[in-house]
Amino acid sequence: MEQTDSPENSVLYSNFTYNPKTYYFLYIGDLKNYSLNFFVKETLIRRLGKQDVQFIAIVPDICIQYNYANLIVINPAATEDMMKNHAFNGDKKPPRTCCRLDAPTFMTAVSANKAVLKLIDTILAHQNQLYLNLYESVVEMKLDTIERVSILGPDKLIARAYNNKIAQRQKLADIVPLIEGFCCETREDMLQTTKRMRAKWPEGIFVSAAYSAGGANSAVTKSQKEVELRFTAEDRYVVTRYIAHEHDPTVLAVVANEDEVFIAGIADQAILDGNRFVGSTFPTIATTAQQKQLRDYTIAVGRELGKAGYRGIFGCDFLIDRQGTIYFLEINARKQGTTLEFCYTMEQTLPEGSPLLPELEYYAVTESRFPPNTVEMTDNPRSIHWSTYNYKVTATKLTTGYIPQNPYERETFQKIASKELIKDFVILEHLGTHFLVQPGVFLARVVSVARNAQDVQEGLFQGVKFIEQTVKEAFII
User: Where in the chain is the domain with CATH 3.90.1170?
Assistant: First the structure.
């Protein structure tokens, strides 16, 4: 595919060449989920009986180079010079500004891109259908309105409905234990509610817009002034009591219908400042009894999703307070940050030939069932431990170094499981050098894998230190 620069046809980078003898599917999403598509590819080879299946990854990530095959970069906020300008720190050229997009903006741009539409026409001239693999099914994605193009994941309208925090509280009130709180239809209602409850909830008040994720549009507030300054948009809000705790488990699952819910596993989230997610750790420290409760609650939520027609991967976040009581926090009606690492773990733990998460989702979406050889991972016989850390900056930074893109995370899990290695860590998706990185932007990711928790934390610490050596404070005038 040729690079183009007209706004409606902008392809900033491509290393893809079409082969009419190959069966293709499209992945559309962030670069950090690129490797998950190898499992989708293997699923389609088995289930469709195709020998040559490949995926084309359409991503918004701006990097100085790409160690990924069949890649197309589309980012309406970026310029081609951001990739061609390989200036290093100290050069006279100004740094490139990081241009990460939110999912709705990116999906809108891809859906309208003439080069993508032409590519789809070319593919459909040689195969009967085209699957779209998305990290999250969002309503801004319109390519599935094209005949013979479909999303290999949950229905986007149902996902949208269940990602609404207000709808979750209303629909799940009798299913899972909710934290005391209120649904507010307006900003003024939210302000009056937080003011009224401040004395009753002295540890803090959690405020979230109806749609929020990863710490965006939500905060644990300590004063009314903070609420007024932090939440300025006219929106619907959820206001709940903040509960002091140290344990934030998350459960990853797949729903096939209103009865069948597959539990992939439980990990513990690392949450900073009360609501900012930065990574996960497996296995969980929850007790056996707590794990059973977490699984039971997630199955109940999954069945509720199944009744509504939701099919595919989802997750549930919880907290466990200092007395050991479990509270439900939210549904993530999409793949979660733990999806790829759970695929690697399941691959090394389950009997050979057992379906992994993308194959389970394929069956759920296309047949509303799981295959007969489905097996859940109920223990950890190969002592696989892992932890992830998403390095996001909280103030404007300038990258002064580069960490090569590592494509060997899957091999790391294999070597730990087979005892070929005791411990290892990888650093993934580093942006590159001479970037001006804005607050909240994802700079790189560390995955540490070992045979015990202590070695995992050692690797995670070392990986973070490597990343820190590639950034410095940016003094903006």
Answer: 383-477
Where does the pLDDT of residue 274 fall: very low under 50, low under 70, confident under 90, or very high at 90 and above?
Answer: confident
Instruction: Report the mean per-residue pLDDT for the chain.
Output: 93
Residue 55 burial (10 A CB sphere; 0-12, 13-18, 19+): buried
Separation CA 168–CA 156 (nearest Å): 16
Domain 247-381 class in CATH = alpha beta
Q: Are 107 and 141 in contact (CB under 8 A)?
A: yes
Compute the average pLDDT of residues 440-464.
Answer: 95
Q: Give the domain 383-477 fold.
A: Aldehyde Oxidoreductase; domain 3 (3.90.1170)
What does 389-400 look like in DSSP terms, one character per residue? EEEE-SS-EEE-
- pLDDT cut 70: percent of the chain above it: 94
User: Encoding tokens for residue 154?
Assistant: 């949950």
In DSSP terms, 205 is beta-bridged to: 221, 241
- The answer on pLDDT for 86 being more than 60 is no
- Report CA dihedral (374, 377, 382, 386) to the nearest 10 degrees: 120
Dig out the tokens for 453 from the structure.
């928790």
Contacts of 362 (CB under 8 A, 6+ apart): 40, 43, 44, 47, 152
- pLDDT at 94 (0 to 100): 77
Q: Give, as one character, the DSSP assignment of residue 40.
A: H
With cut-offs at 50, 70 and 90, classify the pLDDT of residue 171: very high
Which helix (DSSP H) or strand (DSSP E) does residue 337 occupy? Answer: none
CA-nearest of 200, 252, 468 to 376 is 252
What mean pLDDT is predicted for residues 410-414? 97
d(CA 370, CA 360): 6
**CATH code at 180-242:** 3.30.1490.20
Q: Which two tokens stand for residue 439?
A: 């607050």
